[in-house]
Every structure is written in structure tokens, then in C-alpha cells.
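Why this split exists: single-chain examples teach little about how molecules sit against one another. For that reason, every record in the complexes split bundles all components of an assembly together and asks for one structure covering all of them. Below is a record exactly as it appears in the raw files.
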Amino acid sequence: AQSVTQLDSQVPVFEEAPVELRCNYSSSVSVYLFWYVQYPNQGLQLLLKYLSGSTLVKGINGFEAEFNKSQTSFHLRKPSVHISDTAEYFCAVKAYSGGGADGLTFGKGTHLIIQP
Amino acid sequence: DAGVIQSPRHEVTEMGQEVTLRCKPISGHDYLFWYRQTMMRGLELLIYFNNNVPIDDSGMPEDRFSAKMPNASFSTLKIQPSEPRDSAVYFCASSLVVAGGPGELFFGEGSRLTVL
């Protein structure tokens, strides 16, 4: 089984400052990794995903994440945040099984709070 | 496409009553997932379907919970009888398997259930 740990439940950041949201995972097999964002009263939307290849993955809204296999991490970063980035961010993992679409295992989320 | 459509958006009911949540996935998607979101436990996968067939229901908490997918465009999650601890936001998501790894999950806006 896989598990995901998001180390911070809440991260306050000033507008235009950089931010890093941390994610560590546990799995005995190779995995796919994802970051989803949830705006208030909405469902989750995909920000970016790592399937294979380059360990630096770029997503929407200026976010990027780096897969580090040795540290089993997939931290999310943005060089300059905006008020509109205020949301809940979820890291998720799925075991590589050669195909299929089994459900993702999600972390508990990190609430990103942008302060003016 | 209108995206994944869930109804009702909000449901308030009394303990012991039957609750039925509904989901219309994105047309053409062959996977459908039901998730539950609470503050304490985060996002939990309850059950998922592939081509209308339930594949894994190990996340369904009790026999009080049941899910069906009678056709490719409709699924229900039923709780009978409901209990206060079932209060949560229930999300439906659909996806399409793509080459190279799991497809993106597209989430509905959720059904917020309150059981008094």
C-alpha cells in the first residue's frame, strides 16, 4: 500500500513571495505522483503530474514540482504567489501497475494562505 | 462537456434516514470514483468502477453504504440508515485511461452531507 504525508497543514505566505509545499510518500513499488488544487467549495483540479522522465515537472498557474526518488519526496513550488493561489493543495500517489486507473491515495492537504 | 455533475450539492437529513447521492461522469470516461472528504481523515477512496463494473469497494466503511452504476452516464452512492458520523463532502470523479500512465481525475463539485 502507498501513503502520502504532507508535512504542513497550513502555510502562510506573503503575496509575491516564493512558496514550497512539502510532500513525502511511502511505497514499496514505483509510483506516479500528482498535485491537485481545491478552491473553496469546488472539486479538485489537477495541477501537475509525474509519470516518468524528467524529475522536474511544470504545471498550470506557474507551479512546478520535483520528484526525488532517494528522498521519496515530491515538493511543490512557485517562485511568486498571488492572492488567487489561496486554496487547499493535495499531493497524491498511485502505484505503477503497468496501466489501469486505480484510485489515487491522497495526502491530508496543505492550506496555502496568501497574505497581502 | 459540462464536467462531472453531482447532486444534490447540499443535503441535510436526520439520523436514520436514507441518503442518495448522484453522479454523472464525463461522457466517454470509463472509470468512476467515489471519494469522501472529512477534516479528520482527508480524502478517502470509497469505491471505483470500470466500465460500470465495481472493481474495488474496500473503502466502503460499512454495509450501510452501497454504490451502483447502472449505465455509463450515471452512478449513485446510497447510505441507509445514515448516521451523524457520515457527515462529509462526497466527491465523484471520472477518468479515462491514457497511454503511459493513469489519466487525470476530473472531480465534481461535491455533495455536502450533514446528518443531524
